């Protein structure tokens, strides 16, 4: 099912507000995950000695992967609850507290960390791509256009480029993560990350890993742009140098 039929069916069956299902858990997730993955990149990159314009791409990728994996560990419980809330099609769907109580009752603390393998792998690839491509793109855009690295135009163009490439690399991980996290609380459908990958490929084919590519890109592009624009402005206002 494509984007238009999906949205149309969702509005018809669950109403307009269903587009914001899981927003409470999403706020919690972004508060922890996003702040750590973006804020931790600079210090880790500098510690690895990758802060110069000609530093190897893989070192920048490693810095982004490290900050992303740390953030995903902290944000995983919120991610699980967000996925469950979004997948619930009942009009009187339970809220965040009720979902947390039911998950804990059925699976204990470990229930909040299901899908953690896929989430860490996804975060490594996503944030590694996002921050490394953004860092390199800033240098290229700045040099080609004559803008400074702090210029909002440089940040906007670089973040847009980064958003596309991170969608290309992270879509398969997004699919696996969603499948793992969306399992019923009282039933286990997959025995970990690799088992889920094998079953998706076997049942739906390799193209299934890129299902929903354009909606993911439509989410990543503006999110990455806003995150990095705001973050860079906060760095400047606080007296820190730009990434």
Helix content range of the residues, please?
over 70%
Could you tell me how far the N terminus lies from the C terminus, measured between alpha carbons in angstroms? 40 Å
Structural class: mainly alpha
Write out the CATH superfamily name: Mitochondrial carrier domain
Spans with pLDDT under 50 lasting ≥5 residues? Answer: none
Whole-number average pLDDT?
86
Characterization of the model:
With 243 residues, the chain is mainly alpha-helical. The protein is built from nine helices and no strands. The chain has helices spanning 3-14, 23-39, 41-47, 57-87, 96-107, 116-145, 152-181, 193-204, 213-237. The protein is globular.
Chart the SSEs and their pairings.
Layout: H1 3-14, H2 23-39, H3 41-47, H4 57-87, H5 96-107, H6 116-145, H7 152-181, H8 193-204, H9 213-237
Helix pairs in contact: 2-4, 3-4, 4-5, 4-6, 6-7, 7-8, 7-9
Keywords:
243 residues; 9 helices; globular; mainly alpha; 72% helix; Mitochondrial carrier fold
């Amino acid at each position: 099912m494509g984007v238009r039929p999906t949205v149309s069916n969702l509005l018809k069956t669950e109403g307009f507000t269903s587009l914001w299902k899981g927003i409470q858990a999403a706020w919690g997730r972004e508060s922890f995950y996003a702040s750590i993955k973006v804020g931790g990149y600079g210090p880790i990159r500098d510690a690895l000695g990758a802060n110069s314009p000609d530093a190897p791409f893989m070192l920048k990728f490693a810095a982004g992967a490290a900050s992303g994996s740390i953030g995903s560990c902290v944000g995983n419980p919120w991610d699980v609850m967000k996925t469950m809330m979004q997948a619930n099609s009942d009009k009187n769907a339970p809220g965040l507290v009720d979902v947390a109580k039911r998950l804990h009752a059925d699976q204990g603390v470990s229930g909040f960390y299901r899908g953690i393998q896929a989430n860490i792998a996804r975060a490594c690839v996503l944030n590694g791509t996002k921050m490394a491509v953004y860092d390199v793109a800033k240098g290229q855009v700045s040099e080609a256009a004559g803008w400074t690295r702090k210029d909002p135009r440089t940040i906007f163009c670089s973040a847009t480029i980064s958003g596309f490439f991170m969608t290309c690399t992270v879509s398969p991980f997004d699919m696996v993560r969603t499948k793992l996290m969306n399992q019923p609380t009282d039933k286990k459908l997959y025995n970990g990350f690799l088992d889920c990958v094998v079953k998706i490929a076997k049942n739906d084919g390799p193209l299934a890993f890129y299902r929903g590519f354009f909606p993911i890109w439509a989410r990543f592009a503006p999110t990455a742009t806003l995150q990095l624009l705001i973050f860079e402005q906060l760095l400047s206002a606080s007296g820190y140098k730009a990434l």
